[in-house]
Amino acid sequence: MKITFLIHNVYGIGGTIRTTLNLAGALADRHEVTVVSMLRHRASPRFAIDPRVTVVPLVDIRPEAADVTDPFHRQPAEVFPVSEARYKQYSRLTDRRAEEYLRDCDADAIIGTRPGINVYLSRFGSRRALRIAQEHLTHDTHSKKLRAQLGRHYRTLDAVVTTTEADAAVYRSKMRLPGVRILAIPNGVPEPAVRPADGTAKVIAAAGRLVRGKRFDLLIEAFSTVAAKHPDWSLRLYGTGTDRERLQRLIDERDLGGRATLMGVVSPIDTAFAEASIVASASDAESFGMTIVEAMRCGVPVVSTDCPLGPAGIIQDGVDGLLVPMNDERALTAALLDLIADPEARRRMGAAARVSARRFDPAALSLTYDELFTGLATTRRARAWQRERAAWRGRAGRALRRLRR
């Protein structure tokens, strides 16, 4: 079977890139897999890619590339949704290249990995292929305007896959998609190639984009109290983003220099997590929680805010990690202090985390995708009838309303 993934920029760093490559590598055990990157901004991808997976970039935006002088590159996109967060990075050239690629694509299944790209898949993807939209964000994080656009386009697809059952339920209740299967398949995280943490390092780690929604500022504030009581412990923050300077100022203001450190980007993150005894996540929202699973696979217990929608579906509170209320510095501080004071609890939760996180192994999740492909193929006619019947009812309802007016 030929499987194609459509991704924003496989040459960058991010959770969607990691999980796409994890799944692509697992599927390559049985299938011919291609990853199509809408954009390319550097010579080589930052993440290792399974050599069996073919990478196809569509628009090269490196300064020396011919594509940057193409007149269409300087014109705004007409197909990619204006209300999509990445809109400004797209152009008429991206629209054209996506159309050209998808028009000639002979894949049996095509999987889009972000909303705007899923619109490309709806508009240009061959009806012969199974067309699947992955949602790595959540329904409610999309603007009302984008949700309306996605509702129109997602109706033409075969499936919408979210990362959590909670988000799948929201899509089922709020986006009417007759004939489209809506289901949850979590992101995959492979077994790390490092020795698991032993719980003795006096290090708290956190990782992610340095943006306000991740609430690294809350974590730094909590750590300032921790540091006063346990001066031998340190905080390491991994990642990059627009909030870096503000976070560094906060570290300086709290006199945490040398104790709390912005470590920059580390890839893979496994080694960094294995060198910690606690991993913390203070986010206001998580569509899934890749870093939580990555830490757990390294045998590290995670203290996380119980934010929508991912953490509570990953962490068993008090068993393999701890959940605390959102935006609650005291609760976050107390949870960190509890684990610092109890090495045995850290080791016990870390061991439980390793066992629990096995359910996110990409090999097992790739089999779930195989089942999805088979199910979608065998129900294609029945789902087409559901879609047509819903369309007929919609037309009849609109005609009746016109007559009543």
Task: List key phrases describing it.
alpha/beta, 2 domains, 17% strand, 6-stranded parallel β-sheet, Rossmann fold, globular, 14 helices, 405 residues
Structure in words:
With 405 residues, this protein is α/β, with parallel strands linked by helices. The chain folds into two domains: 2-188 and 370-391, Glycogen Phosphorylase B (Rossmann fold, 3-Layer(aba) Sandwich); 203-356, Rossmann fold (3-Layer(aba) Sandwich). The chain has 14 helices and 13 strands. The strands form two sheets. It has a seven-stranded parallel beta sheet, with helices on both faces. α3 (115-124) packs parallel to α4 (144-154) and α6 (216-229) packs across α11. The protein is globular. The mean pLDDT is 95.
List strands and helices in order, with pairings.
Elements: E1 2-7, H1 15-27, E2 32-40, E3 54-60, H2 92-104, E4 109-112, H3 115-124, E5 130-135, H4 144-154, E6 159-162, H5 165-174, E7 181-184, E8 203-207, H6 216-229, E9 234-238, H7 244-253, E10 260-264, H8 270-274, E11 278-281, H9 290-297, E12 302-305, H10 311-314, E13 321-324, H11 329-341, H12 343-356, H13 362-378, H14 380-404
